[in-house]
Amino acid sequence: MTSExxxxxxxxxxxxxxxxxxxxxxxxxxxxxxLRDGRVAMTARLDHGSLVDVEAVRSRVDxxxxxxxxxxxxxxxxxxxxxxxxxSLALIETxxxxxxxxxSLLTDGRRWWSRLCNGDCCPAEGRPLDRATxxxxxxxxxxxxxxxxxxxxxxxxxxxxxxxxxxxxxxxRREKSRRRxxxxxxxxxxxxxxxxxxxxxGDAELVELAHLVADVPVRDRAWLMIRPDNAEAHQVLxxxxxxxxxxxxxxxxxCLAGMAGWIGGNGALLNCVLERCREVGEHLGTTYSMAELxxxxxxxxxxxxxxxxxxxxxxxxxxxx
Length: 321
Prior knowledge:
Blueprint: H1 11-22, E1 29-36, E2 39-47, H2 54-67, E3 72-78, H3 82-93, E4 101-107, E5 111-114, E6 127-128, H4 134-141, H5 150-156, H6 162-177, H7 182-196, H8 203-212, H9 216-223, H10 231-242, H11 251-263, H12 267-284, H13 289-299, H14 312-318
Parallel strand pairs: 3-4
Antiparallel strand pairs: 1-2, 1-3, 4-5, 5-6
Helix pairs in contact: 1-4, 6-8, 7-9, 9-11, 10-11, 11-12, 11-13, 12-13
């Protein structure tokens, strides 16, 4: 995240910059960009393959547009097959009021086109996509860099291998046998999270955190420690906890990572969390209330500005401390 204003001057500029906005290199996707007063208010990414369920897509787009009624829209399709990009854009264009649709762009990664160009601005062969525009240079200078692919995000949320779980088994047995009151656990989770968001915790402490946040009020105490200015550190911490957690302890740290993604403006991480929650839930045959809350946040495109940071005393009161 940066407070620096990064300006774009063309559709090609925006296409080159979008991976820095979304957080990873975009492949085979359509991105809906919501603009408020010429600034990006939010983005929503859809896989081309997901657009076959037209009514589900229409519902999703309607919700996003309703959440931002004062915004204009740019559509951007990325993919090797330009026919697929055209088809995706044509579908979503029917769902957006032409009065608010600023542009409908597509790129194969080398060249780019605008479907709304009605003159000679877009030759049939397209225009070269410059990946070193002033906007991209400004993003890099501000310390923003996209991940190589969305797969990197999904791997952040993976649990340990079977061999790794065997190595961690003594630590998990110790935590299962430990008996502590809830207030003691709350104080301990605050201490571990404060340290874990500033330095790397060891395996024993990460395993301890996994067991602590399995208790919902203790999990909620950790949740209330997430703020916009420390959300990225929380994303890292809870991904580390996931790396030592068996499936039955996965949901709490997974959802805390998702909340940190939402609060910190990392919608891509939030959506990866939801996919992983669905996988774990199906495997365990259960649901998890915080996962349902995250799903509603994503579905309704709820802005992170609704999140209110609380102080320690209020957090203790809210979680029964």
